[in-house]
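Exercise 3.2. Students should predict the tertiary structure of the chain below and write it as structure tokens, then compare their answer with the key that follows.

Predict this chain's 3D structure.
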Amino acid sequence: MNLENDIQTIVVQAVKTLYGFDAETNQVQIQKTKKEFEGDLTVVIFPFVKAARKSPEVAGQEIGEFIHKNNNIVSGFNVIKGFLNLNIHKSYWLETLNNIHADQHFGILLPAEDADIMMIEYSSPNTNKPLHLGHIRNNLLGFSIAEIQKANGWKVVKTNIVNDRGIHICKSMLAWKLWGNGETPQSTGIKGDHLVGKYYVLFDQEYKAEIKWLTETGMGEEEAKKSASLILEAQKMLLAWENNDPEIRHLWETMNGWVYAGFAETYNQLGVDFDKIYYESETYLDGKSKVEEGLKSGVFYKRDDESVWADLTGEGLDEKLLLRGDGTSVYMTQDIGTAKLRYDDFDIKKMVYVVGNEQIYHFQVLSVLLDKLGFEWGKNLVHFSYGMVELPEGKMKSREGTVVDADDLIAGMIETACETSEELGKLDNCTPQEKENVARMVGLGALKYFILKVDPKKNMTFNPKESIDFNGNTGPFIQYTYARIKSVLRKAAEMGINFGTKIDSDLEISEKESYLIQLLAAFPSVIEEAGKEFSPALIANYEYELVKEYNQFYHDFPMLKEENTHLRQFRLILSESIASVVKTGMKLLGIDVPERM
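Answer key:
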């Protein structure tokens, strides 16, 4: 049963009967009644005032009377200016709770066997450095969006494109070759991606020192940047790589192997995964071949220097380089190649790229190019553009080694969660193993929730101290509420209270209890909206609103000590249903909830 659809239908009937006006259901605007007014749902009357030829108040009164008389769901109504506030029978909400409690997959639309495929690309790391705070936001958003789209009935394929070739990779390789003395992750005990990142930073330091020396001898800065022996050696190494030099290729495979092992460890810590990983070293040649096809068919053109371009001025964009005069590819070429491989592998209906907002223009161009090359989803690809994330101290720079390392941040969050939980006595009744598990859940939950509760389009500042708080709009607050409910349910079982599975719909319940059921009933529509908007923040803030209201209820109403067995049964079923929705919602954010704290 969908209450809003039922109300829309009866309003359409009302305006037809009363005023002879054939309204469309989408003209009937329904919203939650504001807390300062009496009612559960509010119908906006203004769209029907012209047809009624009456004031909004009179039209609202007439429509309200028609609904009350002809619909057994509405128990009463009131009109405030052009707004019709409807009271819904408590029996309706109790029956709604019964349905929620009985539905093991409440809110989740399980994909059909023939469901369309949505591919979601996220992470996209470079193999010259470890993952950092910016990557964390990318990974958390990508993973959560994938889970939300699954809950909306899509078949989802989670993919990662690893940037494993190019001049930046060669910089790390050259630095290791010059100054590494053969050290490895095994010999140093340093995680592989950190070891390679160390040499990327070292290259930059030595390169800057060489530029400084050249400029002090009288060379201009731009000329020094191009003439420095280090950059020339790195470029020579890149050319050797492209020519399949066996020694360079072996070094490249070895160092990338170190990085992949490091990435896998971080992804595992973060709780994100992929169904398919693509590598630029395997896609850029396919991109070149697709560009050459486009050249032959007249989609692209060649300039005098043999470079290949796309003229997109007709689409309000610019001209775009696709192949340099020497035949080497650019990022756009690689994206086209990756698209080809993906299209070969999967019957993609919608493609979503989770990439920061600095790449907006790039994806506008890519969409047009893919459409011109015949990819069915090209024109409708989604660039999920998100804002940057910083720490209170400010921006980060990889080559200068001032990034916030993902592994360090995760470890620090878990350690802080353990200390905070211990101080507040949240782990007093836990075994050592439980303490370790809870600290991990709370630390990661704090990190993930703090990042995901923010509108993805906005830049944000991540404050570790603020995120681990057992009060307010935080992951730990939601996790603790879940554990609190599970504790109540365990105590009920220990007391031999069997609260069954169904509530009497004639039970008298309070406005607070009715409001909690209404919040629960909104969960499917929140998931649907989060899917349409690609916004985990909608789920996060719904979860906070739900547990905030539950905690007020928990403090104000007796549960295990309630003498009325029917009321006690209702409150336990309500609590159990809320716990279930909290767990489902947090899972959509990639967050685990502890059974006890």
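Discussion points: The longest strand covers residues 348-356. The CA atoms of residues 384 and 533 lie 10 Å apart.
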